[in-house]
Amino acid sequence: MKDFFTTSLYKYLVQVLLIAGLTLTGIKYYHSSTISNSPTHIVFIENSWDEALKQAALQKKYIFVDAYAIWCGPCKMLKMQTFTDDKAAAFYNSNFINVAIDMEKGRGPELARQWQLRAYPTLIIFDSKGKPVLGTVGFIKADELIRFGKEALKK
Known about the structure:
By secondary structure, this protein is α/β, with parallel strands linked by helices. It contains 6 helices and 5 strands; from the N terminus they run αβαβααβαββα. A hairpin with a 5-residue loop joins strand 4 (122-126) and strand 5. Helix 4 (86-95) runs parallel beside helix 6 (142-153).
């Protein structure tokens, strides 16, 4: 057994395993770097209406607001199902400034009164100046969310 570690077969096996390990690591790195360039979820600004308004003015885009409460079951379903849909993510990330606002924290209660919100989740699309264009209440599926966004962009 002692002679095995000094043989050319042992050295050859070590080289093959080393090359295979490096190759597989490179493939994994390349694969993950090409996938991560486009998010698979809607990217939201968190709890900053002012930042959303600023970005909308700079980028000349409408604002998509997810008005939610942390205790709200349908709000959690939107986050887990609808907002993680690849097609919905691609559409909203390219066409809107997306902002998620907890309506019970920070400026949330003030905005809820201003926007006259009565239930959660409430999804609202505003123009780049902060004027409401279209809204809906409750859970919706990804294809419905895309239709909702397309309808707002026509106004």
